[in-house]
Amino acid sequence: MIRIQKYLSEKGMASRREAERLILAGKIMVNGKVERTLGTKIDPAKDRVEVLGRRERRAILLNKPEGYVVTKGAKEGQTIYHWLPKAFQNLAYVGRLDKGSSGMLILTDDGVLASHLTAEKYAVEKEYEVKTQEDVTPAMMQRLSGGIRLSDGLTKPAHAMKTGKKSFQIVLVQGKNRQIRRMAAAVGLTVVQLTRVRIGDIGIRNLKPGEWRVLAFNEINLFKN
């Protein structure tokens, strides 16, 4: 059993303080009946809780395969939405991956979540594994970590680490268009494979390319908090 305020907070539908105001205002329904008592507990597995005038926001995590675009306008079978059921076709991607890249992609209809994931002021880390055509050197990693001057400005400091003769790992807190490919090119590297493996504290785990899962309430709150 869990208090309604905590349940709504974990669902990302309202802060605990806001939930208290909604309860007192008669805006919360439990199993079709208005609930006005603070501290009432519900069973999330059995009880249906609604906020009048609001709908539950959704967020999923997709392991995007290489070779698919994130836009809906592409030919059938060439877009990431090919992998998603009808119920999730209206979700928008957050933090695009280009056609040649793969890995973690979050899709949601939660504008607050999308803002926290993309706005630079929140500095949410995105970790990538990169394979290159040329050999990687420590000097290259030092340059990538310190920031690279691109056509649209200087990149923020990153954390780049060599992981193999022709591979490296990089963690960014911003998302310029094709940023890693352009940064790599600036130090003499050609990217041949790019995979996003982590966003914030959430990793790709055991999701195979093309597989997806719903983000848990506590995972969504990790980004919002």
UniProtKB/TrEMBL annotation:
PROSITE patterns membership: S4
Any one GO molecular function term: rRNA pseudouridine synthase activity
Keyword vocabulary terms for this entry: Isomerase, RNA-binding
Keyword S-adenosyl-L-methionine: no
Pfam families reported in the protein's UniProt record: PseudoU_synth_2, S4
Cited Gene3D superfamilies: Alpha-L RNA-binding motif, Pseudouridine synthase I, catalytic domain, N-terminal subdomain, RNA-binding S4 domain
Family (UniProt): Belongs to the pseudouridine synthase RsuA family.
Record organism: Candidatus Sungiibacteriota bacterium
Name the UniProt record assigns to this protein: rRNA pseudouridine synthase
Top-rank lineage group of the source organism: Bacteria
Family annotation (InterPro entries): PsdUridine_s_RsuA/RluB/E/F_cat, PsdUridine_synth_cat_dom_sf, PsdUridine_synth_RsuA/RluA, PsdUridine_synth_RsuA/RluB/E/F, RsuA_PseudoU_synthase, S4_RNA-bd, S4_RNA-bd_sf, TruA/RsuA/RluB/E/F_N
Entries under SMART domains matching the protein: S4
RNA-binding S4 domain mapped to chain residues: 2-65
One Gene Ontology biological process: enzyme-directed rRNA pseudouridine synthesis
